[in-house]
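Cross-posted from the bioinformatics board.
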Amino acid sequence: MRIGELSRRTGVPVPTIKYYLREGLLPAGELTSPNQASYGDGHERRLRLVRALLEVGGLSVAAIGEVLAAVDDKDGPVHELLGAAATRLVPEFGDGGSGGGRKAGSGAGSDGGGAPDAETVLARDRVARLIEARGWRIESGNKAAEALVAALASLARVGHGGFVDLLDDYAEAAERVGRTDLDYVARRVAREDLVEAVVVGTVLGDAVFAALRRMAQVDASARMFGEEAPTG
Amino acid sequence: MRIGELSRRTGVPVPTIKYYLREGLLPAGELTSPNQASYGDGHERRLRLVRALLEVGGLSVAAIGEVLAAVDDKDGPVHELLGAAATRLVPEFGDGGSGGGRKAGSGAGSDGGGAPDAETVLARDRVARLIEARGWRIESGNKAAEALVAALASLARVGHGGFVDLLDDYAEAAERVGRTDLDYVARRVAREDLVEAVVVGTVLGDAVFAALRRMAQVDASARMFGEEAPTG
């Protein structure tokens, strides 16, 4: 199909498609004449994936480029491929990144100097114990684990150190979701589809779970506080 | 304490603190002379909260302003207060917002015109059935439910319509996390603390859960694919 048809089918304006082509998010079409290219179903699907990562996943164009690189990477064992994809999808606050802000755990709350503050030390110890208690096969220095340490340390710094008491319940629920995710992924046959499923499921799955958690909170709040109106 | 001491204790530079004061994220200090103000422990705690929402929660300064307004709002029954706080924390893709991107579900994948596309109609039906099946007390048009519809429709558009099969497992896990959240919140006595706990727990709790989900995926992947290296 021509670029105009691709635009009509996906609702993405032609100039935007051209921008994605320049940025390498979309592979070039097949040239049918010196200044005319033809696009296939693969382009349409990839374009929808880019839009989903952008709109629902909230990823930057640069991050989408990295994720697509993982999808297109055909080498290495499946587990490493999945790990590479998952690593690029870890929220940025754990290890800096392109976000404008300063890094959590490296500034606010520390008393200057390069050593981790007390909250970070405590959180790191708590996370290590969690991994051990659950028997999770996770390498030390895993980026998601570091992100968890940063989030818990931040909670402690704003007076919510008690939040760690919820960690076991959260981990239990996360284990259920993580297993469900992998079962879904394991249905794929081709490795390209496999990695794509992880990427899509991880980014959009976060959005799905966050929405469900809000809904469950609204329900729990209605049950707990809905009947009466405390006078504060 | 003086502003310099507040800066030293929190690691936030003085010009940044002054910016937060101008933006209303931090209440003014008590004037001790015509051009000198004094700050208390409340300022220090609020400043750490702002930094946590910014660095770990990834909220914009404008969004933080809205969240703090919910924290500081002393009127109305607790359930409505919690609902107001939760609503401001729904991810932006469900209902537009300050993010630069287009809205999901209103452009990509629709065949032009204002009517919702087939994926949105199907997703809306699926979410309605989920709410009914679980007996969740949620008003129609709830923003989190709309965000869930948008995420599921996006998944379907990129060829992952099968992801809805996971919805019940996700909802089961979310219900567990949502109840845990409310139990944590219900420990608070003062209503200011109550709302603050919801806000902090929701924003940072998403980060905690996302990190735990990644860790559980890595573990599940290691168990499923780690032993062998498929030749793909």
